[in-house]
Amino acid sequence: MLWTLLLAAGIGVAGVLYGVHLDRVVRGKFEGQRWALPARVFARPLELYAGRALSPDQFQAELDRLNYRQAAEPSNPGTYRREGEHFRVHTRPFRFWDGQEPGRQLDIQLADQRVASLKDTAGGPDPALVRLDAMLIASIYPTHNEDRLLVRGKDLPQLLVKTLMAVEDRNFDRHFGVDPKGILRAAYSNLQAGSVVEGASTLTQQLVKNFYLNADRTFERKLKEAYMALLLERRYSKEEILEAYANEIYLGQDGSRAIHGFALASAFFFNKSLSEIGIPETALLIGLVQAPSSLDPRRHPQAAKTRRDLVLDLMVRDGVILAEDAAQAKLAPLGLAEGGGRPVGEYPDFISLVRRQLQRDYRDEDLRSEGLNIFTTLDPLVQSTVERSLPVQLAALEKSRRMKAGTLETAAVVTSVDQGEVLAVAGGRKPGYAGFNRALDTVRSIGSLVKPAVYLTALSQPQRFTLTTSIQDTPVSLPDGNKRWEPKNYDRRVNGSVPLSDALARSLNLATVNLGLSVGVKKVAETLYQLGVQRKIRVVPSLLLGSVSMSPLEVAQMYQTIAASGYRAPLRAIREVVDARGQPLNRYPLAVEAVVDPKAAYLTTWALQRVVTHGTARWLGEKLPEGMTMAGKTGTTDDMRDSWYAGFSGDKVAVVWVGRDDYQPMGLAGGTGALRVWGDFMLALPNEPLSEFPPDGVVIANACGRSNVPYIGDSASRCGSNGGGNASKRPGQGGGAGAETAAQTVEEPVAEREPPPPAPTPKPPQPASGKNLFMSDFYN
Predict the structure, then answer these.
(1) pLDDT for 756 beyond 50
(2) In angstroms, how far is the first alpha carbon of the chain from the final one?
């Protein structure tokens, strides 16, 4: 008896000590970081307000991308009804970096391609501005590729909770972690049904198995599971246990990504949030708990339907739903979303830009475990429009030049004018292809895209140069080692004296070189740095015709500064980053710096507008709708190896490059290649026209036989080589001789051999905000 008592005491002490150890294990994970959560990347939300440019089809496409569903009566979040230009939308609530956006019932009227009115139909005040929920565009998964969307216990639908208990644990509210009666009842039910219809383990035991243990079917593991379930119930409330279970349970596989939790499973299988699913979807999700692999509704639809219908019967048995509801639900299809749920990772080119900025500010383990929410500047409407256009336009160009299909490649970048936000990135002709990103990593000679910097440098000296100043389009011959550098115009002609604005519109090489030599090549290089160029520039005369090489993203920065009237907003792809609790972390504020005289920038923009209406981009000018104005510049390099177009409207900057990866000639100039791609997608987007209001210090006047020309000063006093009156003609209106000749000028190639540098390279200006000038981090 004594030895028996001592043995029992020893076992008891060992059990207590083991329990203390298990208790530490239980508390350590349950109270610490329970899961390694992926970083989620969101696009910019669609903002609705009266007057916003938006067509009905564009709005419906945005709702479809957000997985809103059409309904006769949009009474649930995530539903809408369209009648022509009239929409009724029930928006979803969404937590942004600056607070919670509530769900709303809205009446939205569009007219003339704009939002005409916004009304709240639920009795609240009519909102001035509404943000739709942001679209998830990517996730950066933990190393073990688990994925889950966390949901709070109070937000779990009661239908799902009651169904879960009816099928998996009918005594959940009454047991202490282990349910002996439940074991007996499950055995009886399974015996009656002739198959496994009810589980014997409690929800707490299932949580312990998934959360702490492995799936080994051993007696020791089962005892440990029961012990830990008792400890878990002792430490935590039923609500906390249910919440953890709902977020942890494994429900399927998406390639290498493991689907955990009901919230993510609802998105993955149905493209719906958990609050939006109905009776048949709820039954299917709960049915998957038993065997996610063998009941996968995409691979085994009949097995999944059989299990779903059995769950519906159990819901009727426990009074969760009525028999007629179950009968109707059994007639419903599985309702699976095409393509495996919400599209994630559709925009790899843009995401690669986001990753570069994130890797500067965060450790990789933080991105893969802390559940960060990253709100980006991607505009899905702009991105999708660009991606649709590129393959179609490249195929048309190849056909027109009788090229083999797939010969040409391209890259495109679209940004906002005022804020420098990157709206879209396309790194190649194949949308969604995660390959070489030409928008960021293709560095090619930019050709005549550099010329606006030459003319901007000159126009920044109003005492010497105006838009009507005569500059010499005459031959240039400079020493280049043992040879001479002698650039030519595209048409091999020499035009003599030409107005400065016409020289840019016609993209005259000789006039540009003479002007650049007059203002100084070093000054032009300094202007490029001011515009935002980050890489080292060789200060040589051929710089004036584009011997500098850049990526499309760098070119976009340069033209953004011109488009924003000389105010440089460093291009950014991220707006805000918040943690899993919604607290803001690193902020990415707008950092604007005045780097160029706004008056000179305005004059340069005016001249670039003439490029569109009377110059090398006249093809675009002929297609602009009434009231729309745009500016830009074509660019071509030696032997037509690179075709460029960079341009802007009042609110968007876009850059397109077209060429071959093998650097072979392709026979396309900027005006016959990249411009056609640029115009196709930009004309399909809502755009604002260029501002008609000049900055202070710029006057519109008639001079030199031309009308309505901007110049810096207070009177149009003189014309000619040192003209004080900036006389040219407003794009699209009557002008002096030579305007029609300019209209007929086609794009020019650049003929440059770089002579030895005559001057040291100036240092780039220091950024005003290093956090925002992220391009300098990977372009040296």
Answers:
(1) no
(2) 84
Which string of DSSP letters, residue by residue, matches 420-481? -BEEEEE-SSSTT--S--HHHH--EE-GGGGHHHHHHHHHT-TTT--TTBEEEE----EEET
Average pLDDT, the chain: 85
* Residue 4: CB atoms within 10 Å: 8
Indicate if the pLDDT at residue 140 is higher than 90: no
The span from the CA of 235 to the CA of 242, in Å, is 14
By annotation, the residues acting in catalysis are: 168, 448
Q: Which tokens sit at 121? A: 């139909």
Is residue 561 within 8 Å of residue 567, measured between CB atoms? yes
Residue 337: its pLDDT value, please?
Answer: 83
DSSP conformational letter for 673: T
Q: Which of the listed CATH numbers 3.40.710.10, 3.30.390.10, 3.90.420.10, 3.20.20.370 matches domain 388-744?
A: 3.40.710.10
Longest dimension (CA), the chain: 124
- Res. 776: pLDDT tops 80: no
Quick one: average pLDDT of 15-27? 67
pLDDT > 70 in the chain, percent: 84
* Assigned token pair, 475: 């031959």
What ranges do the domains of the chain cover? 40-139, 141-331, 388-744
φ, ψ of residue 172 in degrees (nearest 5): -55, -40
Task: Give me the phi and psi of 347, to 5 degrees please.
Answer: -120, 65
Q: Which tokens sit at 667?
A: 């026979």
Query: What residues have CB less than 8 Å from 83, skipping those under 6 apart?
Result: none
Number of helices (H), then strands (E), belonging to the chain: the values are 25, 32
- The pLDDT, as a whole number, for residue 224 is 77
DSSP annotation string for 98-132: TEEEPP-EEEEEEETTEEEEEEETTSSPPPS-EEP
Pick 141-331's CATH classification: 1.10.3810.10, 2.40.160.210, 2.40.30.60, 1.10.10.60: 1.10.3810.10
What does each C-alpha distance from 131 to 49, 93, 104, 165, 560 come to in angstroms?
Answer: 9, 10, 10, 37, 26
The residue written with tokens 């040291």 in the block is 760
Confidence (pLDDT) at 12: 66
Residues 6+ apart with CB under 8 A from 701: 708, 709, 711, 715, 716, 725, 726, 727
What residues form DSSP beta bridges with 483?
A: 480
Q: Which pairs with CB-CB distance under 8 Å and at least 24 residues apart come from 76-85?
A: 76/276, 77/103, 77/273, 77/275, 77/276, 78/272, 78/273, 78/276, 82/56, 84/56, 85/56, 85/109, 85/110, 85/111
pTM: 0.82
Q: Residue 708: its pLDDT value, please?
A: 77
DSSP β-bridge partners for residue 470: 499
Q: Residue 173's pLDDT is what?
A: 87
Ranges 80-84, 341-345, 360-364, 531-535: which has the least confidence? 341-345
Report the C-alpha gap between 452 and 594 in whole angstroms. Answer: 18
pLDDT per residue as tens digits for the range 727-748: 333 333 333 323 222 222 334 4
**Pairwise CA distance, residues 513 & 489, whole Å:** 11
Q: How far apart (Å, rounded) are the C-alpha atoms in residues 162 and 761?
A: 73
Residues 6+ apart with CB under 8 A from 524: 453, 454, 457, 516, 543, 544
Tokens 């010499």 correspond to: 472
For the segment(s) 40-139, the CATH number from 2.40.37.10, 3.40.50.720, 3.30.2060.10, 3.60.21.10 is 3.30.2060.10
Sign of CA dihedral 393, 399, 402, 404: positive
In sequence order, which residues have a C-beta less than 8 Å from that of residue 312 and are 6 or more positions away?
A: 279, 280, 283, 321, 326, 329, 330
Q: What distance in Å separates the CA atoms of residue 290 and residue 271, rounded to the nearest whole number? A: 22
d(CA 219, CA 221): 5
* The one-letter amino acid at 333: P
